[in-house]
Structures are given as structure tokens and as C-alpha cells.
Amino acid sequence: MTTNSETISNPLGDDLQIGELLKRMTLAEKVSLLSGQDRWHTATLERHGIPSIVMTDGPHGVRANEDGRIKGRATSFPTGVSMASCWDLELVEEVGAALAEETRALGCNVLLGPCVNIVRHPLAGRNFESYSEDPYLAGRTGVVYVRGLQSRGIGASLKHFACNNQETERRRGDSQVDERTLREIYLAQFEMVVKEAQPWTVMCSYNRVNGEYSSQNDRLLNQILRAEWGFDGIVVSDWGANHTTIESVQGGLDLEMPGPARWYGDLLIEAIATWQIDEEAIDRAVRRILRLVRACTGQQQSESTDGILPEGAVNISAHQLLARRLAQESIVLLKNDGNILPLREEDNHSLAIIGPMAGVGSIGGGGSSFLEPPYRVSPLDGLKTRLGDRVAIHYEPGCSSSTYQRSPQNGIAQAVELAHQCEAALVFVGLPEGHESEGYDRQDMELTGAQNELVREVLKANPRTVVIVYAGSPVALPWVGEAPAILLAHYPGQEGGHAVADVLLGNVNPSGKLSVTWPKRLQDTPAYANFPGGRAVRYGEGIFVGYRYYDYKDIEPLFAFGHGLSYTQFTYTDLQLPTKAKIGDQVTVTLNITNSGNVTGKEIIQAYVRDVDSSLVRPVKELKGFAKVELAPGETKIVSISLNQRSFAFYDPQRGDWIVEPGIFELLIGSSSRDIRASAKIELTL
Ligand code: GLC
Active site includes 57? Predict the structure, then answer.
């Protein structure tokens, strides 16, 4: 092995150059690349002209510093659950590109996201950061997020691979999942993103999967991720997730983070020196890391090609508007009896703005994804900005959202009095920042503090009351029957207050739809008997996660997966579907969507597949396509949704593959998973 100190002119130019470079590197230099230099940087090899690259959190804003709570400059976008609830793939791709520009502006190369873990249980701490209970929606959203990010030369880190579906015992818990459930529910979205967007990195999770830590899980990392799916990027550990030396290298872990080296470094050099590991195993990892360095830095050296700002841009008005758009598009109108919404200025000369979330709506959940933005717009700010002095706005917090802080003296009484006096009342409630968080799961679905009492009392005081909920996961709404209108804001980021005001006042017609089922009670939830488990977490519900469970058990949810109302109505007509097709042929379903109301609006048409007769039990229906369309009043558009072989397949553990059995399938086209507007059958033949 030559250790010629002369550097190669362009060491990362191509794989040949990288191969040449490897020959010149010492073992110590190679091994140094396999661990972080510090918490966020990979190693630098000056002798060979190899720069370090910088990783930073994500996924819905660039932290770029050790503690995201330091008032940063980066845009705080709505969180993952909002990116899925907008069902607008073009919009999410735009957000990915904007996040890339901000990542670059803050001197980083890899943004640690998207988080595509399945929402298995309402109480899991990071649901807000994740996308959905459905692998298809999670996968589609992850694909476009990664494409947007990497289109600007910033690497993604698809996380957390795999089965990180709770925070309790996350660092050592063992997710015990049968093969079919693993494939169909917990890996399917990762597979989609790896195959269709080629993320530059995949982050392995802390937990074990079927007894083996993800960080050294040869089956997950080498056999499935690489050999089966063709992943050619690097596997980076979650921070501190590496537990061993030999097993991790052999198991497929390329980069141990954070640095400095813990189980790699000297221990790895020792393992090679004593022939416990071949140096070739190291070389494979080093090659991948050098390719990542090339991808991250190579683009930065080239002229910016597609009009992006060469040095990136942070919190510019374009990104602020994008954050507002994403918040607008992901707000879900859960209920609107009597069309109390939108509020019309001419009907409301005075508004009672009530609740702890009115003054400072939560913008995100706790943990590594939290970002203190350059500014925040509360709902109160948003309404004042929109209404000016045309409508009298009066504010009473009513109570604290914290379970620890005391509520204002007679706060609820004052809020009730205000509600009496005004023509309408808007009650903003929700979970305070950090109540949902990385590192711990919630103990219940309850709203915190005296918020439920506040809502009940205000509802009694004024029948024209709207409740707006800030939460990244389902919460109990015990007053749901009394509230004529309920809006779900999720965690809408720094522009959330403007977006909520836009929707409440009708400047934006809400179009978001739930990416997670909202259950009536915790006992109805699929994983109720197996959550959070102990060190072993048995995924006893199998493939019946989310709506798959409620459908199969015929349990009525509070609000169904895919539910979301509009200020207008849509009619579905003229569904067209071939009556027969060969297995493997693309199948296209078309239908007409008409806006039969009197305001412009957007509809999300969902296509569910039902396998009428299958050899293995299957869910009643599964989401396999969707489209979001905007229609003016009276306008009709033809919507086309394409289905491929995988759309009809299930994973057969006996055959170790995805199978489509010939027979009858039903296409269910819905405005939600429980609001099916049209259906047709198709026979698939060999
Ligand atoms: C954390 C999170 C992961 C994050 C990483 C770096 O523990 O699990 O999502 O990207 O460490 O902060």
C-alpha cells in the first residue's frame, strides 16, 4: 500500500480517483473517516485534500447549531405531519428545495431528514415529526422531500431505519415485527424513497429490530437496504446509536455519529490489526463516505445551475411565504356545522379570541427537530393583521396550556364573559411545545391544563364558537359534540398565525386532510395492548395499523384517515376503470371532479384498493394513489390516478416476495377513507 503523501489533483473526481486515493491512505486515515470529527462534522483529511462535511437537523428547519433553542435565523416550517396532511407533493418538494438553500446558507451539507417512521400509536413522542399511519402517503411525501432537498446539492438522511415508532426505551427497545408487517407497513415507505429518490444517507435507528440493533443489523442494512433495494449511499448511525465495532462494520454501518470515535477509531484499528475484520470491509465504507463528500462538496464548487442562490438563503420572504402556504394547505377543517366558517367580517363586528394558543400557537414539538425561528406569528397576530380595526378583537387567555403553570385568576370566567359580549368566539387550544417530543411518549391524549373546561364554558356562552387545535398527534376532544366548528392547525411553524387567520376568515379555503386517524378513545387504537411495551415491543396488531385496523374491526373513529372538509363541495362522477387487466400492466383510473359549491377549493381524491378474495388476510382497503386538484365554482376536471403492480400486491413471507394474486379487486375512490364516493371492480389475470 503506497502512502505517497502527494495528493491526487482531484481526489474525489470519480470512483477511479477514489480507488487511487484509498491506496494512498493509511489505515488510521481510513478509519478516521468512519466516525464523526465532532458532533456534526465528518473527519477532514488535509494530507489528501478531503474536507469534512457538516450534518445538521432537520427535518422542518435548519438548526445548524448545537442547541436549536438559540434564536436562529432559519425558517421554521410546519412539521412532518403537516407535510403529509397537505397531500400536495409539488409543495413538499418546493419546501425540500427551500430547506436545502437554508442548509447551504448555514454552511451545512446534509439535513437530517425526512423522518418517515409510521405513526403506530397516537402517544408516540415523534408523531409530529413523522408523516402518517399509511406507508404509501409517508413514502410519497418522503420521495418528494428528498428530491427537493437533493436537487439543490444538499444530502438527505432518511430516518430512522427502522421501526422507531415510540420513544419509550428507544435506545435499547426491541421492535418485534413479523416479516409481512415489516415489509408492508414499516419498510415500504423507506423502500419507496430509496428506490425513487436515492437519498445520500440513511440514518439507522437506535432500537433493535427482531433482536438486533439497527446499527448492526446485517439483514436490514446489507441484505434489504443495499442488496435488495440497491441503496448506494451511506448508513449513518443515529447519534449514539452504535454499540459495537466488528458487528457494526460487518452489519453495514458506515459512519458512527457523533464524533469523536466511540466504537470505531482505535478499536476498529485493533480489530483489523488482529484480523478480526478484513480491511476491505473498511474500504467499502470509506468509498461510500468519500462519494458522499464528493456529492456534497462537488455541487458547491460548480456554478449554481437551476437559479438557486449560490450561497443559499435563510428566512427570505420566499421561504416565509412557502412556510405560510404549507401551513395553509395542511390545516384540516374537522367540523363545520351550519357553515359557521369562514367568519365574514360583515357578520362579526367583535371577536373574542380566547385560549392559551391564541397568544403563542405552538410551532413544533420537542427534541432535535425543534427550531427557535427568527420570529413567530401567533393566531392573535394573524387575525389583527388581517382584520385591522374593521373588527374589534378582544383577547383572554382563559387558562394556561401548561400542566405546571397556574392559570390566570378567574381566567375562565373572564373568557366566558368576553364570549358573551362578542358576536363570535375563537378558542385556541392545544399542546404546549415539548409536550410531544423526541425522548418520551405522551401518557394520555388529553389536552393539558384546564383547556377542556375552558372550551366547554365558552361553548355554553356563545353558540358561534370555533375551536382551533394545535397538536401534532390526535388529542381527546370531549366537547366535540358541542363544538359546531373545529380546525386542526397541527404545528404550523413560524407563519402559522397568518395561515390560521387566512383559513378562519376565508382568504384560504382549507384543503388539508388527516394523515393519521383520530380515535374516539385510546382503547380503540390498534396498538393499545402493546404500547409502549417494555424493552420488547410486540407489534401485535400486525399490518392492521391506523385505518387498516378501524376498518377491519369496524370501529368508528372520531375523524377518519383522509378526512378534511372544505368551504365548498365536490361531486365525483364518471369513474372509468378497465374491467380487466393483466397482472403487471399499469392500470389507470379516471373520474370527473366538479366543484358544486360557490367558492374555489381544492379536493384530495384518494384511491383505495380492496383485494376481494386473497389467500392471506388483507386490510379492507389500502391507499394506493391520490391527487389534489383546485377547482373554481362549477368547474369540472378529469382526474387520473395510475396504479402499478405493487398497488395490488401483498408481501408473502412464505415466498419472500410481493405477490399479486389473480382475481377481482375493487377500486374505492374517496374524499376520505370513510367517505367513498365511487367504486368499480377490475379483474386481474395472469
Ligand atoms: C437524535 C435523533 C435524530 C437526530 C440526531 C441528531 O437523537 O433521533 O433524529 O437527527 O439525534 O440530533
Answer: no
